[in-house]
Design goal:
Blueprint lengths: L5 E8 L9 E8 L4 E5 L6 H9 L6 E6 L2 E5 L2 E2 L7 E4 L11 H5 L8 H14 L15 H14 L4 E5 L7 H17 L4 E4 L3 H7 L2 E6 L2 E6 L1 H6 L4 H6 L4 E8 L2 E4 L2 E4 L8 E7 L4 E4 L6 E10 L4 E6 L7 E6 L10 E6 L3 E4 L1
Parallel strand pairs: 3-9, 3-10, 7-8, 8-9
Antiparallel strand pairs: 1-2, 1-4, 4-5, 5-6, 10-11, 12-13, 12-15, 13-14, 15-21, 16-20, 17-18, 17-20, 18-19
Helix pairs in contact: 3-4, 4-5
Amino acid sequence: MSDMILQVNGISKRYRNGTAYAVWRVAFDLRPGELLALVGESGSGKTTLLRMIAGLEHPDEGSISLAGHVLAAGTKAVPPNQRGIGLLFQDYALFPHLTIFQNIAFGLHGLPKAEQEARVKDMMAVTGLEIDATRYPHELSGGQQQRVALARALAARPRLLLLDEPFSNLDTILREQIREEVKEVIGKTQTTAILVTHDIKDALGMADRIAVMDQGCLLQIDTPGAIYHQPVNEYVARLFGKFNVMEARVEGEFIHTGFGSLPIAEKTGNNTAARICFRPEQAQLRPADDSALSGILRTCGFRGDRWQLRLGDLENKGESIYIDCQDAGHFAPGDRVGFTLSGFSHWDR
């Protein structure tokens, strides 16, 4: 028997008026207690994927199983309220006419009153809601409303929690605080969760794994570190921040760029066009005469927590790369600056 709690097997979805698939043959598994972040630009398919898992849309092909039970396959479709899945939306969806207690207990009507009270009390404690449970949503701050929505979603003890842009209505400072608190609560309750977000900081800061989608396809699913440092293509790389690209040519065991040459582990043939890609912080400064890689300093700017150098290529072809470092105030434009790379990706063009 599989130890995966969620199994998504090759699901696709095309809307009636659409010419292209909103989701195309997406497949992945989730382990119990794992938090997966779904990221991608608007229209990438991540919300459609979430809605199919929740039961709000039905896949045209493929299947979805949760805890060994098939939720969707062919014509079979378990209703959303019978899937054991909790939902947390960006607008919180709290009932304004119900008290905090009543909001949290909303999905517990089938339980005895004493158990309802116990669960609400437990969820308020877990989510840090040190407030009067007889108050109403409009009397709470945005952060407190977020906690109430999370407590309500978790009170029913769902097998899977789906979070759709849950922090988008919060300001930057509160967003960071609530993000850490939600991560802590999900960890304490050992809840398996999928987070849909546009914010890369949410994904990198919360997820055990990240799934990147583009035009309905799943491009890469891996740990935050692997997604950030070993992206499978330039789309994934640039989605997660500044990324350098050096035009290159492979010859045997070396790859030649306008900034010098690098050895590569695998022979890929001679005279093959490629690209070398790396993050600014993956470069370390070295004396120019003691480094295989170097460039001409164009600009040098102080960013508070670091310096950022912009280097031009040695052949003056107009290529530029960026390097982050801690001390660069002694450099001047026109200096030749050497560097090495702690890691990089290279792709054939």
